[in-house]
């Protein structure tokens, strides 16, 4: 969603300004065009020259500049932007925006932004200033406007030496919020509720051992991020993973297959699409013991296993309006096994790959897959990033004539 987007970053005078520099850098790397508007106070922390060099565009600092880039610069910048992001947004700037002040270049631009374009506010300040009733009233007033979105600050150590809620989120998280906000306003999945499962499950043998698999969760997390960036409402049910949680997703952390089964069935009746990318354990120990099993003299150790519930099969049996997408990680006869799985589990689409191929499978950032629909049509994708694969899957889901269920609120 960021590629080719025109992002106007408003920077106000707080110590967290240094994070805004990395935000610009990350947006540029994602393919966005970025322009920066600074308050005079912001220039006390970081020079306009730094933002100019990082963004590769002139920086607007004053309504009274001798050589503005545009005539009526605040109007032209508002017309140019797809989104205005204010990060950091100080208590002072939040108050001005809430009450319609336009006494500097940033607040003037904000007032000139059409109501059809989103404005994303990222407050950052002392925790007591953030908790103050005046600040909360101002933020609530902004949230009451159709095109305003507010990112809640983080809890932690602040520059003033105190600790509490008021930290500006990390640049990577801010970029994710920008991506999600653009998706909600301009994306082709707005109004869709998508359930994604990710990572592997673990079945405990004792307190220190478990049955599991090699799944990292990279593919499922990429699908969740791609869907969010296109405006979908996403629930991510995930097994243990080291992947960074998508900031806008409703995340349900599970460990066992039974827990994932319960979580999926709980939300299944209201979702539009299920993309089940998790690699679940098919079996679990018949008995889990509460103490660590000690090694015996015998060289053999017998473990009796019970079959776990088949989540994808159960979803297929209960399917009504949903589009159901499964995965087939195979080592041989990939297409044959994948097509059989479509029929057996009542799927609309399956994503099949040979996990023995270089550039595919577990714990890598790329994948090589085949998309097979219920009619048996096979679409082969070349090696690409898992995020690109995720977008190809979503493109295919849209082509299945999903239909519209009305916009849902995050």
Task: Please name the defining characteristics of this protein.
2 domains, elongated, 410 residues, alpha/beta, disordered C terminus, Rossmann fold, eight-stranded mixed beta sheet
Class by alpha and beta content:
alpha/beta
Range of strand content: 15-25%
**What is the radius of gyration computed over CA atoms, rounded to a whole number of angstroms?**
25 Å
By CATH's scheme, which homologous superfamily of the largest domain applies? CoaB-like
Overall average residue pLDDT: 92
Instruction: For the largest sheet, list the strands in their spatial order.
Output: 13-12-9-14-17-18-20-21
Number of helices: 13
End-to-end gap: 18 Å
Regions with pLDDT < 50 over 5+ consecutive residues? 402-410
**SS elements, strand count:** 22
* Quaternary organisation: single chain
Q: Architecture of the largest domain in CATH?
A: 3-Layer(aba) Sandwich
Helix content: 25-40%
General shape: elongated
Biggest β-sheet description = 8 strands, mixed
Short description:
This protein is α/β, with parallel strands linked by helices and 410 residues long. Helix content is 33%, strand content 23%.
């Amino acid at each position: 969603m960021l590629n080719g987007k025109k992002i106007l970053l408003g920077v106000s005078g707080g110590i967290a300004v240094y994070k805004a520099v990395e935000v610009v850098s990350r947006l540029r790397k994602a393919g966005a065009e970025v322009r920066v508007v600074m308050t005079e106070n912001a220039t006390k922390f970081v020079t306009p020259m730094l933002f100019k060099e990082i963004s590769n565009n002139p920086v607007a600092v004053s309504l009274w500049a001798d050589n503005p880039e545009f005539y009526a610069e605040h109007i032209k910048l508002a017309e140019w932007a797809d989104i205005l992001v204010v990060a950091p947004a100080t208590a002072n700037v939040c108050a001005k925006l809430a009450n319609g002040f336009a006494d500097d270049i940033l607040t003037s631009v904000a007032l000139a932004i059409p109501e059809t374009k989103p404005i994303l506010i990222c407050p950052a300040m002392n925790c007591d200033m953030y908790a103050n009733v005046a600040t909360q009233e101002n933020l609530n007033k902004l949230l009451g406007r159709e095109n305003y979105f507010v990112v809640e600050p983080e809890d932690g150590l602040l520059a003033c030496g105190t600790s509490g809620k008021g930290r500006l989120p990390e640049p990577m998280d801010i970029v994710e919020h920008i991506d999600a906000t653009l998706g909600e306003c301009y994306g082709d999945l707005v109004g869709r509720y998508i359930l994604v499962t990710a990572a592997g499950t673990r079945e405990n043998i004792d307190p220190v051992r478990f049955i599991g698999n090699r799944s990292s969760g990279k593919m499922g997390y990429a699908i969740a991020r791609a869907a969010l960036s296109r405006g979908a409402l996403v629930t991510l049910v995930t097994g243990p993973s080291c992947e960074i949680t998508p900031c806008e997703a409703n995340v349900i952390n599970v460990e066992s297959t039974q827990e994932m089964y319960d979580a999926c069935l709980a939300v299944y009746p209201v979702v539009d699409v299920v993309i089940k990318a998790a690699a679940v354990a098919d079996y679990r120990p018949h008995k889990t013991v509460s103490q660590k099993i000690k090694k015996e003299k015998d060289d053999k150790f017998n473990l009796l296993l019970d079959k776990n519930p088949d989540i994808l099969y159960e979803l297929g049996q209960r399917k009504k309006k949903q589009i159901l997408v499964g995965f087939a990680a195979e080592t041989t006869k990939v297409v044959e096994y994948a097509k059989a799985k479509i029929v057996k589990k009542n799927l609309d689409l399956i994503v099949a790959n040979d996990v023995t191929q270089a550039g595919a499978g577990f714990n890598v950032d790329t994948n090589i897959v085949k998309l097979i629909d219920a009619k048996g049509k096979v679409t082969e994708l070349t090696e690409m990033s898992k995020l690109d694969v995720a977008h190809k899957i979503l493109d295919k889901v849209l082509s299945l004539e999903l239909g519209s269920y009305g916009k849902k609120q995050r």
